[in-house]
Amino acid sequence: MATKRVGNLPADYANNGFYGQDILSVNQFDKGKLDYIFRVAHEMRVLVERFGSADLLQGKILANLFYEPSTRTSSSFMASMLRLGGQVIPINNVQYSSVTKGESLPDTIRTLESYADVIVLRHPEVGAAATAARYAQKPLINAGDGVGEHPTQALLDLFTIVEDLGKVDTLKIAMVGDLKYGRTVHSLTKLLVNYDVEFVFVSPDILAMPDDVLEVVRERGHKFRVTQDVHEVIGDVDVLYVTRVQKERFSDMAQYDRVRDQYVVDEALMAKAKREMIVMHPLPRVNEISYAVDEDPRAAYFRQMRNGMYIRMALLAAVLGKA
Ligand code: NCD
After folding, report:
1. Which CATH class is domain 26-150+307-319?
2. Active site residue 231
3. Are the beta carbons of 124 and 66 closer than 8 angstroms?
4. Domain at 151-305, CATH homologous superfamily
5. Ligand 1 atom closest to Cα of 282?
6. What was the pLDDT predicted at 4?
7. Bridge-partner residues for 122, per DSSP?
8. Has this prediction a pTM greater than 0.85?
């Protein structure tokens, strides 16, 4: 990938492999790059806990462009930029932008990059981030492209596994719920194939993991199992990654109603799980995890949220050549 323009810094300013790069897919990450980002994210945690903020990205501006709803991804990117001393142009309500007047994605991107140094984009269409990045002269970060990918979420998910369980190799990881439309499980699976892990995919038939993702798992020689019954596997897994049924992706609401509450993680299910395991969820949850589980130390979803900010701080610093 060509290195994009990042202010006046020379292109070889930072030799971290991220400087001036777009972040579009987890396919860009090998183990070396993952280690690097996790190391920087760890430093970001220390920085925030000790000082709250720093001036690493002072003078830099992020354009945060969201064509789909978001709470965590959008506000954690904003918080990341602000904590590193940068500024943000937040466009969370595209209905109030010129998009409503019919402006195309490329034109919107060209506009924002005239003002900003880096762009974060969430869009309902698969491949939108890659398209936008082709037009952008500045680095662009994919914050979710429809049912495609959500690379920064997968990075924070993996970082949480490393922080909580101290390793990734030899873990058995179950993904539960909407594996068809859930972009976070697509990205996380494709990241996890870099490690020696076993997968269990738990979903109703109509929400099964897409073949192209299963193909990657097969190709990389991983053991995996497909089932509809979470009770069958709960006692045996180290990570239970729960997802929301993605209502907004269904055209047939009767079909959504049939599968919406198929899996609920409650105290009774947790009683059957290992003592040393974690329950993850990208959030928002609807009914998939009962509130009683929040008190269980194995509930990792609020830690995931917090880790998201450290990972996004690390990514912003890295692509802007300051990590
Ligand atoms: C996820 C997403 O947008 O894909 N949310 C998030 O970014 N944390 C999951 C979801 O919406 O269910």
Report:
1. alpha beta
2. no
3. no
4. Aspartate/ornithine carbamoyltransferase (3.40.50.1370)
5. 8
6. 78
7. 66
8. yes
